[in-house]
Amino acid sequence: MTAHLVYLLGGASLFLAVVLPYALRSAALSAPVVLLAVGALIGLLPNTDGSSFSPIEHRLFVEHLAEFTVLIALMGVGLALDRPLSLRSLAPWRRWGATWRLLGVAMPLSIAAVALLGWWAMGLAPSAALLLGAVLAPTDPVLASDVQVEGPTTGDGDENQIDETDEVRFALTSEAGLNDGLAFPFVHAAILLAATGPVTEWGASWLAWDLVGKVVVGSVLGIAVGWLLAKAAFGSTAPSLRTSESGEPLLAIAAVLLSYGLAEVAGGYGFLAVFACAMTLRSAERGSEYHALMHQVVERLERLLTLIILLLLGVALTNGLLSNLTWPAVLVSVSLLLVIRPAAGMLALSIPHPWSRARVGDATLGARERAAAAFFGVRGIGSIYYLAYATGQADFERVSVLWSTVGLTITLSVILHGVSATPVMRWLDARRDDAAY
Questions:
Q1: d(Cα 76, Cα 152) in Å, to the nearest integer?
Q2: Which pLDDT does position 62 carry in this prediction?
């Protein structure tokens, strides 16, 4: 394509990114569906070279673009959540019961089921099968905006009542914020299996460091960075550091880079650090309008980055990304979206929550809410990052098949969840409103 045509298409696509979220608010269609379709149409234009849009050929670019997009989304998710966590009390943690069950039960079950299908049905090597399960495990904080909380609630309201009426959106938002980082140990396990060999040679160190140590390091450093930035923004004696008074929202971007960079340098999980940093920032002066300002700038940057990735993904779809698909791979993709994730989610959310009726604010998910939270496990940008990252760390067999499977899964998820999100969430909202009267 000529440079002028690139500008024309880029401008038209950016215009769509600006107007679609508002134009489609009442429609059973999401902006990612439209953007993916636009990208696919661009890929059909003459003179488009398939290799120019191949994630295998441009793995490093794809890795870093997806990485930064997920980081920005994690900051947005952390700032949007109104239900706090506290290191001084167990009570706030109890109100995250649905989140812990989705992370502790549904995600490992999904990884195991996809890995088993990848090995048995697709004929992948154990390392590649485990990688496929780990890559497709996390729900996406980028593409799941239609089923997530909209943003931070500020003002003088009782923070204990915030978000309590919409347990589904809270569960999906908080799950997406955490499981991008918690999927990393399993990605590392696949890399070790491919590069090092049998589990007996690395299993103990993986359990101690990859599964536990890096989680702790990332979380602690994220909390520390968030605490220091919050102290500076809201309570510093130096006026130049009190950014809450000047209303400078770019502090959120600085928080992303500082927390992620520090955690990665220290060997921890940067994704967890960014989410922990965002949650810590949000906990300071919860009624301040500054949180909404930071969330707005993060949301706009996330929308722009998502636009770029979806367009490139759409172009890749019509330029050979799916050319290595097999029927077993299609089976794995469809099974994950329609069987594995819903079943694992329902099982996890059906486990009795010992604190669910113990106190006001410990919300209980009804059958309809459990079904919705289990179904809307949106797959997206995180899967792209993990696959690009892992294939740069070790040699995996049939990488092109892995990319085709992941590309198909994301595409089906964008369409299936994008079309169903608005009517399902509207129906749940109506039923909840009826029950309130």
A1: 9
A2: 93
Q: What angle do CA 152, 307, 130 make, to 5 degrees?
A: 85
The range of the structural domain enclosing residue 196 comes to 3-436
- If pLDDT is split at 50, 70 and 90, which confidence band does 21 have? low
**Backbone phi, then psi, for 416, in 5-degree steps?**
-60, -50
Digit-coded pLDDT (tens) for 379-404:
889 999 999 999 999 999 999 999 99
Burial class (CB in 10 A: 0-12, 13-18, 19+), 357: exposed
Which region holds residue 57: left if phi is over 0, alpha if psi is between -120 and 50, else beta? alpha
Structure tokens at 323: 């050319």
- Cβ atoms within 10 A of the Cβ of 222, count? 33
- Measured between alpha carbons, how far is residue 291 from residues 85, 249, 250 in Å? 16, 8, 11
pLDDT of 361 > 50? The answer is no
Q: State whether the Cα torsion 137-140-143-145 is positive or negative.
A: positive
d(CA 304, CA 21): 12
Structural tokens at position 420: 């169903």
Tell me how far apart the alpha carbons of residues 126 and 47 are, in angstroms, rounded to a whole number: 39
Could you report the per-residue pLDDT of 233-254, keeping only the tens digit for each?
Answer: 998 888 888 898 888 899 999 9
The total domain count for the chain is 1
Say how far residue 164 (Cα) sits from the centre of its chain: 22
Q: What is the pLDDT of residue 143?
A: 65
The CATH number assigned to the domain holding 376 equals 1.20.1530.20
Tokens coding 45: 């234009």
Contact of 353 with 167, CB cutoff 8 Å: no
Over the range 78-116, which residues count as b (16 or more CB within 10 Å of their CB) and which as e?
bbbbbbbbeeeeeebebbbbbbbbbbebbbbbbbbbbbe
**The model's pTM:** 0.90
